[in-house]
């Protein structure tokens, strides 16, 4: 403190200049920050499931799939119509040529990898489901109908009622040639343009204003299926593809001002169809689209906190100072992210608000003590700022260290997005240290108070109004009251612990957990699950064995047995595997007699059944030493995943040690979710133990006694790890990675309450020789009102999240709100209950009345 105090107060102008230049530098970097999403960041690295996922990703695909369902609207007939076939062909081609798409894995009844096989006189006949020379004649349409039935694709690539068809694709994270990372936001926009191409009656043509060789002025360079015009269109970048002079496709970017946009009729519009898109890229796009709401909530939070803080301080200008420092901390955080090469992931878009919340919390405490110095000691702004800095430097730094620890423990979770959130938050805390511990005291020392007496009178009036509340609340530190509080806490803890046994790990609701149930994405998901036997929820089990195992009956029959077990597991819609398709072929060889819908035992017969399936089908690898079993689940709820995994593990446990197949989990998005659930279960206790141990160590280092650790840490542990989980059970919120992150974030914020209250309480008892009740009443008068005000202000601002279109923001808002309020209550009532039995004065005046006696009337220092 002796070192930093002269820097802040004796060289204020220099400090402000340095901080201004730093803010301009980091602010420039913040303007360059871009949203950065990635599928691989969602993977729990090092988990056995993910090791299998990465090993077989190239051969059997990963989990970054895109499903596009083209559906006839109710009452408009089935898919065997010229208009539908035209739309499906064009949509398949658009998906095939989509940048970032793995073209070898694009599949629909229009692609040549989807074939049928039938028995005819003299042998077999097969071909593409939709012939290459397809023409939309009645005869051809009927032929396609028959081919669809023979190809066994109903439920997979054709809906169960034959009113829709599916296009399946898979995105690659990086371009295999250039190594360039997939731009998820552009890809989602392109998918949305494909949807609108066939569902929008209008389109917008971008015509060049001047020559762009080989294109001429007036040529259509680009087409959009949503209206692009707006106030900022002239300044936006427009990317388009064109054929250069050599006839090859090239990509160029021009400004919106280089185009004339004209509305025109859309020739590809099909009023009879609807299109439903699902996949990770669509989730990212929808979250990014809702990011505008996050900005609105952010601005609303700032406004609410400013209004309430102005009411508290009695000055709009003084209220603006801690809030401005909080905003600067967010600017620094975003600038540091870009400076160190990071982007802002859509799933971490709420971290800046958490940084603002922490900054606001510390700012209110600093401003509150500054107000006390002015009101009680009648100091000017400069001297009050120095006095505040001296009093709060130790508890303030302790609180910030615990914040760092709270966020740093998230690095123990081996999931990229969580670790990125932790790094993001640590950058923000670094900014908070500078803005709150250096900049805010400096600004407060300059704060003009035009009418000091009126300003002090506002503080007196507020403190007199609250004094009876603190007098009543201070009774909690009496031993009889404290004993009752501790016993009630113990009973509540026991009940909560019993209820917490029902806490599920994973998602408890259908659809994507990031968006609301009525969102477009979740409605699309429901439409696909309702009409098809497959969906986006897929678990792939890899059967590992010897080469050429697909002609070994003991191998394929075992895979088929597992498929049967999975199909009869609750939550499984259907399965797909090579042995299942081999049975179809063998059955066809025997004139489709049900008796022969089996696997042949002879290798020679099995050779024939596997010939129609090259490795490009994804049903086997090149030497047939690995075969995936596709398990399509009804949803990805925790109960479904647990049931499926338990059924699989029970089957594996029944196998003999010399079984010819080793079954490995897992690829597919359900496999990734199962791995994430395992990581949550394995790391939850570890993360929380390290979190609380590190916070406890920081408290001990600052106060150098065990009493402080118990008094500050116990309420935090009880609220964070027990009561909040009980609320999650009642609200049907599953324990997920984001929830653990929320608990760590909230614990970092909430521990501040206890530190500030205890620091004043201990000072009053040990250094000023006050009785326990008098000391606690004074502590509430100094810091309690700031704790209550901070909790209410942050809670009110977080409450606005409940209206968000992002379900994970709603869940985080509920949990943060509860933790902020519950920890404030715990700091005010549980902390003194522990202190009543543990905190002892160093020296006691024999004439002082007993703390447990009603005669020990509390006095507030602010009264």
Strand order of the largest sheet: 12-13-11-14
Spatial shape: globular
Structural class: alpha+beta
The CA-CA distance between the termini, in Å, is 29 Å
Major sheet details: 4 strands, antiparallel
Rg on CA atoms, Å: 33 Å
Average residue-wise pLDDT: 84
Separate helix tally = 24
Strand content: 5-15%
Helical content class: 55-70%
Low-confidence stretches: 848-863
Strands, total number: 14
Outline the fold blueprint.
Layout: H1 4-9, H2 12-31, H3 48-60, E1 65-72, H4 82-96, E2 115-120, E3 123-128, H5 138-150, E4 164-170, H6 184-199, E5 202-208, E6 220-224, E7 237-243, E8 249-255, E9 259-265, E10 273-279, H7 280-289, H8 291-313, H9 316-339, H10 351-377, H11 381-408, H12 416-446, H13 452-473, H14 479-499, H15 520-531, E11 538-544, H16 553-567, E12 572-576, H17 578-589, H18 603-610, E13 626-633, H19 638-654, E14 662-667, H20 669-703, H21 706-731, H22 737-767, H23 772-799, H24 807-838
Antiparallel strand pairs: 1-4, 1-10, 2-3, 5-6, 5-9, 7-8, 11-13, 11-14, 12-13
Structural summary, described in words:
The chain is built from 24 helices and 14 strands. The protein is α+β, with helices and mostly antiparallel strands and 863 residues long. The strands form 5 sheets. The protein has a 4-stranded antiparallel β-sheet with strand order 12-13-11-14. Strands 4-1-10 form a 3-stranded antiparallel β-sheet, sandwiched between helices. A 3-stranded antiparallel β-sheet has the order 6-5-9, with no helix packed on it. Strand 7 and strand 8 form a beta hairpin. The longest helix has 35 residues. The C terminus is likely disordered.
